[in-house]
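Priority: medium. Attachment 1 of 2:
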């Protein structure tokens, strides 16, 4: 009840200045996204720190793969492509990223509650063990060496 009263008081103050409030709120949100993120230390296009717009634009133009290659040449093997999205083009860095356990998002792949499949296993050691068992059947060893 007190929260509603506080919200009503804030709205009566902000209502005449909604445009300024909106612009200020967006500016603060973008500044937080760009400068207070732990990813702000990674190189990348300036707009990538604020928005997904440039990433989506290049995807719609059909040139996203070329832009990724140019950015890897310019920024190195690890670069920030969106506010919460990093692209990696080096197996050494991939091993560092994928050594951590997965988060609960992977439970979306778990269609059977009695058995946890390879894709939905949260513990990376268990996931890697399962992946090795399945990988033999799906590996393209005649074309590409298995890892």
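Attachment 2 of 2:
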């Amino acid at each position: 009840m007190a929260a509603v009263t506080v919200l009503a008081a804030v709205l009566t103050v902000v209502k005449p200045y909604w445009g300024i409030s909106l612009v200020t709120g967006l500016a603060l949100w973008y500044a937080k996204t760009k400068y207070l993120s732990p990813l702000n230390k990674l190189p990348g296009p300036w707009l990538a720190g604020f928005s997904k717009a440039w990433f989506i634009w290049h995807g719609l133009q059909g040139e996203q793969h070329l832009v990724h290659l140019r950015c890897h040449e310019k920024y190195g093997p690890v670069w920030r492509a969106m506010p919460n999205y990093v692209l990696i083009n080096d197996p050494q860095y991939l091993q560092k990223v994928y050594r951590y356990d997965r988060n609960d998002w992977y439970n979306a792949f778990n269609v059977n509650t009695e058995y946890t499949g390879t894709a939905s296993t949260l513990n990376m050691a268990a996931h890697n063990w399962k992946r090795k068992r399945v990988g033999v059947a799906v590996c393209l060893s005649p074309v590409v060496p298995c890892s």
